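Interim report, section 4.2 (structural modelling).
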Amino acid sequence: MTATANPTGTPKAKKLSMKARYGALTRDLDWAPGYVSEEEMYPHTSYEGIKIHDWSKWDDPFRLTVDAYYRYQAEKDKRLYSVLDGFAQSQGHLTLSEGKYLNAMKVFLGGVTPLEYAAHRHFAYLARQFNGPGPRFAALCQSIDEMRHAQTEIHTLSNYNKYYQGMHNFAQQHDRVWYLSVTKSYFDDALSAGPFEFLIAIGFSFEYLLTNLLFVPFMSAASFNGDLPTMTFGFSAQSDESRHMTLGLEAIKFILEQDEANVPIVQEWVDKWFWRGYRVTGIVSQMLDYQLPRPVMSWKEAFELYFEQQMLGGLFPDLALYGIKPPKHVDQAIWEKDHLSHWLHDTFYQFSHAANFTTTVPDTEHLDWLAQAYPDTFNQLYRGKWEEMGKLAEEGNRFFYPGLPQLCQVCQVPMVYCENGNPHKRAVYHSEYEGENYNLCSEGCKWIFDREPAKFRQAWLPVHQIYQGNCGGPTIPDVLEWYGFQEGDSGEYIGSVDHKNWIARHQMIEDKLGQGAGH
Amino acid sequence: MTAQETKFDRPVSIDLQENDENRSLVTAIQGDNADLLTSYTPGLVRLQAPARLEIKRESVEAQLGRPWETHEFQMAIVSLAGNISEWDEDKIVISWGPKVEDDEDEDY
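Predicted structure of the assembly:
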């Protein structure tokens, strides 16, 4: 062949700009239906009352095309899997800060990973149902991302599952275990809403407002506690997350710009989903403050940085231009930042005989760290109880709560919260609907229940279900068997299977080192 | 460990993985943005700027010593606060405030 660069004689195509490529490879592939109406093709986008006049106004700042998407995702996976291999080959689990660190991962695997999978399914639904090609393509990418997150999280933690208890049955436990119903019911609430509400619930309120609180301090903590694989999957997932946050923000702005009548609808969703999501992130608060042998950042600090500063300080002034106010009940969340993790970990401690993780009283050094992180509340309100629990455990009377707690009908968290501003008064709210009484943990959850009582009356509350005889039997051992628990999954950490193994493995290493030194 | 207090009213920020490749990226961003605040938590480096932060391909390439396309930024980023108000082949801009209209043709 001759070296003619352009044998046909047609002018060589100029390389398209990023924006033009995005247009050509996403929006230009859309077509207007000829033999059905738009309403018939996209039947789910009208019943929520949201009015969209021009779907082409949806902007994707990432300008991502399929080829670029797969290229970068493949590279992310390649990097992650080489870390997983190296960590497994080098017996990396022995270099964790402590065996009990993995309790945080057990909560994560049962509580969060199944939500990634649920998100994958529902974003695939949005990728079919939205009228505009821009949001459809963004939802498609997010759907594939979420599948990747579920898979890489399971793959990452599967290495620990070879050596540690509590992770072997996470998928079934997500559907059954009392505290995991908090995360499951939250997502089920979103899945059973309309497509626009889901987008505000998960795309905006969760991904944009709250996900940093969930992931960033947590992955930094993994790094600090020697958990290289979790840090790597976390950062790998978060690199997609920045795209999801952008989708969430784009979504809310797009909906608000399309019609003024959308504003009050969106405001109610922001109010509802902030509070729903905030209640779920409470589980993270106790992970950050109590479940990390080497804590990295307190819940209070993370909340101030990632929520108060970045969201209330940064984002909401922008949304005010559209008439959106900061979420209802946010003042209570701000007040609770000094208390939340202490209430919730106290509950986890007392009920860990019925959970897929173990707990133990924090040592003095950890209590001192908490006192320093919570100068206004910890020594004053919460330290005494831990010292009392520690004394009981030393005397051989490790305390487990013998009954079952009252759950909130909306967030499904045991009703351990206090009245806004008063840490001495337990909050108990009630609503009546069609002659039945419902218990709620806060003004926020009561407001949500009263707005949609017909929805929330259907909640599958684990404690009620146990009492109704739907969970394996009438006694705690019956229920735990139905949860699929095995020896060592639950209870006190000190003296547990994981603890004994941790000591035995490290003694073995020391023995070997000792022998080596002798030669 | 404490998160660094911000001195800005409405900071925009990016959290990046702290690794070898991103050190060049961070140096480039520091060079292009006055008043940048840099802080570290394990595994992470956070860059905060008052209201606007810009990442320029040319500066990143100069630091890296190789071609760099702006899409590669997705490999580095862990989180952000702010709008992505521009993202093309030459730069990425993160800011608060109303949307900046693109100067390219709106054909799509």
